[in-house]
């Protein structure tokens, strides 16, 4: 007799569990698809300093991305934001400097040693 009483309870428990887990099974792929962009790994971008120029001279990145400036000239340069938001100080020949873009905004920059050198970094 105990087995007859247990069967309806087990069916009820199974229905409750199914009702509770079914929405998660349906909506989990939707959540994963929409949140995967938010979990994207930061990217690294390279700006080459060569022939007294930043190449590319303009760059757009996202917050959290890293920008690496590589000096391929035979003499030192700087990467200094006009607003002083970042400043590499002197980057020797064949050396590099990196910056993690933490704050959104538009940043004009240049080389303090060579005033004709200009670039722009846009952080979204």
TrEMBL record:
Residues covered by the EfeO-type cupredoxin-like domain: 25-122
Keyword Signal: yes
Database matches in Pfam families: Cupredoxin_1
GO cellular component: periplasmic space
CDD domains named in the record: Amicyanin
Signal peptide positions on this chain: 1-32
Gene3D superfamilies the record matches: Cupredoxins - blue copper proteins (2.60.40.420)
Record-linked InterPro entries: Amicyanin (IPR035668), Cupredoxin (IPR008972), EfeO_Cupredoxin (IPR028096), ET_Amicyanin (IPR052721)
UniProt subcellular location: Periplasm
Keywords: Signal
Superkingdom of the source species: Bacteria
Name the record gives this protein: EfeO-type cupredoxin-like domain-containing protein
Source species: Paraburkholderia phenoliruptrix
